[in-house]
Write a structure and sequence with these properties.
Layout: H1 2-10, H2 12-32, H3 37-46, H4 52-59, H5 64-83, H6 89-111, H7 136-170
Length: 177
């Protein structure tokens, strides 16, 4: 049961990338079929969840097709990492944290687009609150990606502890005289 739950948690970043791929596909659908209600519904459902990372990738010169291919590749890579957790811990760490940072940045950009924020006018004011999305999907993704990040941190800390114990056991013994 523990293995199943941990695999489910490790699949969180892959789901983030998969939803990003769905969003890129919705952009393509909207471009090809602008009169279809489904294309608009899919696009407007995904827009509040994953806005900024897609803008950053488009600044890098990626079109919608390249973005779709990249996010689909990251999804497949994330699924592979989830089912092989012992082999690629560093890659899993980076994969999970990029997904988490992308979600947090996209929600921070979406939440700061408000008119009349009183705190922004105060000199030296820094808003340290975590901007949670208004969509339930975005909140669930942030929690799931955060759990994946915590999982990789726990695994790294556990490996450091195991190495310290092994080093202590293999250290040369100094005889007491």
């Amino acid at each position: 049961m523990r293995v199943l739950v941990l695999t489910f948690v490790r699949l969180g970043p892959a789901l983030v990338y998969a939803i990003g791929a769905v969003f890129a596909a919705s952009m393509l659908l909207l471009a090809m079929y602008p009169s279809r209600p489904f294309a608009w519904e899919l696009y407007l459902t995904m827009l509040p969840v994953l806005r900024l990372p897609l803008m950053l990738l488009s600044v890098a010169g990626m079109g919608a097709w390249e973005l779709l291919a990249t996010l689909a590749s990251m999804t497949i890579f994330g699924v592979y990492l989830s089912f092989h957790p012992k082999r690629f811990l560093r890659a899993r760490f980076i994969h999970a944290h990029v997904a988490m940072l992308g979600l947090v940045l996209s929600n921070a950009a979406a939440s700061t687009a408000e008119a009349g924020r009183i705190g922004a006018s105060i000199p030296g004011y820094v808003d340290w609150s975590l901007p949670l999305p208004t969509a339930l999907l975005g909140t669930a993704l942030i929690i799931w990606a955060a759990l994946a990040c915590v999982s990789t941190h726990a695994e790294i800390i556990r490996r450091i502890g195991i190495r310290a114990i092994i080093d202590r056991l293999l250290a040369p013994r100094v005889p007491l005289n």
